[in-house]
């Protein structure tokens, strides 16, 4: 690890998780990272500035108008010095400020001024985290390239149980290390990732689809990109902000997905199929909007769509690694193991989409990784963290080929 001399500006906001930022500061200093702490006024109610000054060996900044020891505009000086800007814990309030560009204290002012990458570790009540306003602010920041780690699920200080607990200092430190010194262990590999839902038209205004947002596939594409891979993203219908820095092919129907994936599969070293294609489509598509028929039932005849994963499995060449997903509502292990063998996959990621915190339209997932050698059940994690674990397993499988 060669982080000596790197500069991290650590913002600490007002929440009980502020005590965890002390352990984070200590770990960074042990790594040789120059750590400068900015605390909001509310944060000082939980941990004293003296604690962070002792741990970081630097003065703590709390007041925009305090006279600096050296003649510099302090928020600009710190903004320029930062190799990475971290806010941990990050309350709903600071997330909202950053999303809206509000700069009304030292922390928000410096964060707005910096050109350094920004890593946010949220910590708040479950209701605040899941509030539409907070989620919209998070998506706004992600679309601007801001990195997030957590929050985790579990028992919260307020007595609630659910997502909102700040990630542990060790996990945040690992995230900082990856951003300061990115691991490029996928460099030279061509990785295809599929994401999102497909749509099968009934008529010009209606379609059959599912609830996939594309978040899991996007997390995989971003993680592979950040680890040095050349990424091709085949994207269906999604609601999450799209990754940048990857080649993207847009598709609509399952047959579109089939054509796009099979047409490029031969070029790829790794194919990760996280999309949620429709298994069936209407046999015929009405040319005009289907109207009600005086109380009579509407009967739809559906036909099977091509199985994209099975087709890729049949095309599999030596040296390729194939990863599939099994989103199930019952008999998870049985169905996943069947798909693993039938579709010639090297790894299948199985999850029960009926479990809270797993499946569609959430930022977390609870998955089991299955290979021919066995399985590993993972606890609730963010989808980015799940993506990293999947890629770790892909590299292990490739090393054994």
% residues in beta strands? 15-25%
Instruction: Return the CATH topology of the largest domain.
Output: Rossmann fold
CATH superfamily of the largest domain: CoaB-like
Q: What is the name of the CATH architecture of the largest domain?
A: 3-Layer(aba) Sandwich
Low-pLDDT runs: none
Into which percent range does the helicity of residues fall? Answer: 25-40%
Shape, per Cα inertia axes: globular
Instruction: Please state the CA-atom Rg, rounded to the nearest Å.
Output: 24 Å
Number of helices: 13
* Lateral arrangement of strands in the main beta sheet: 12-11-8-13-16-17-19-20
Cα end-to-end separation: 29 Å
Name the features:
single chain; alpha/beta; Rossmann fold; 401 residues; 33% helix; eight-stranded mixed sheet; 13 helices; 2 domains; five-stranded parallel sheet
Please specify the SSE layout and strand pairing.
Elements: E1 7-12, H1 18-30, E2 34-39, H2 49-56, H3 74-81, E3 84-90, H4 92-100, H5 106-113, E4 118-122, H6 126-130, H7 132-143, E5 147-148, E6 152-155, E7 161-165, H8 169-180, E8 190-195, E9 200-203, E10 206-208, H9 215-226, E11 230-235, E12 247-250, H10 254-264, E13 270-273, E14 280-282, E15 302-304, H11 308-315, E16 321-328, H12 332-342, E17 347-352, E18 364-365, E19 368-371, E20 374-377, E21 381-382, H13 383-399
Parallel strand pairs: 1-2, 1-3, 3-4, 4-5, 8-11, 8-13, 11-12, 13-16, 16-17
Antiparallel strand pairs: 6-7, 9-10, 14-15, 17-19, 18-21, 19-20
Helix pairs in contact: 1-2, 1-8, 3-5, 4-7, 9-13, 10-11
């Amino acid at each position: 690890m060669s982080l000596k001399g790197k500069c991290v500006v650590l913002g600490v906001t007002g929440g009980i998780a502020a005590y965890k930022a002390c352990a984070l500061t200590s770990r960074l200093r042990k790594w040789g990272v120059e750590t400068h702490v900015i605390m909001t006024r509310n944060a000082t109610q939980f941990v004293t500035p003296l604690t962070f000054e002792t741990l970081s060996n630097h003065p703590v900044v709390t007041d925009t108008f305090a006279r600096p020891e050296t003649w510099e505009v302090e928020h600009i000086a710190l903004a320029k010095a930062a190799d990475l800007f971290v806010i941990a814990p990050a309350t709903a309030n600071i997330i909202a400020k950053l999303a809206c560009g509000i700069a009304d204290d030292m922390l928000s002012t410096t964060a707005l001024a910096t050109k350094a990458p920004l890593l946010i570790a949220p910590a708040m009540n479950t209701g605040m985290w899941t509030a539409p306003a907070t989620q919209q602010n998070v998506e706004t920041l992600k679309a601007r390239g801001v990195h997030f780690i957590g929050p985790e699920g579990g028992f919260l200080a307020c007595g609630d149980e659910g997502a909102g607990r700040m990630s542990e200092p060790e996990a945040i430190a690992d995230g900082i290390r990856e951003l300061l010194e990115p691991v490029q262990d996928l460099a030279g590999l061509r990785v295809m990732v599929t994401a999102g839902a497909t749509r099968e038209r009934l008529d010009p205004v209606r379609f059959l689809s599912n609830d996939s947002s594309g978040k899991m596939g996007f997390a995989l594409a971003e993680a592979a990109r950040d680890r040095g891979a050349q990424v091709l993203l085949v994207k269906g219908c999604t609601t999450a902000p799209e990754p940048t820095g990857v080649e993207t092919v847009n598709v609509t129907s399952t047959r579109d997905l089939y054509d796009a994936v099979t047409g490029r599969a031969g070029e790829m070293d790794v194919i990760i199929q996280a999309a949620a294609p429709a298994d069936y489509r209407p046999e015929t598509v009405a040319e005009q909007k289907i109207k009600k028929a005086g109380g009579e039932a509407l009967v739809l005849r559906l036909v099977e769509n091509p199985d994209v994963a099975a087709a890729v499995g049949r095309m599999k060449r030596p040296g390729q690694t194939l990863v599939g997903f099994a989103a199930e509502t019952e008999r998870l292990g049985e169905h996943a193991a069947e798909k693993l063998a039938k579709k010639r996959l090297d790894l299948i990621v199985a999850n029960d989409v009926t479990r809270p915190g797993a499946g569609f339209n959430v930022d977390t997932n609870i998955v089991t990784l299955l290979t021919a050698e066995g399985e590993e059940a993972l606890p609730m994690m963010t989808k980015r963290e799940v993506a990293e674990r999947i890629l770790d397993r892909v590299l292990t499988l490739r090393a054994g080929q």
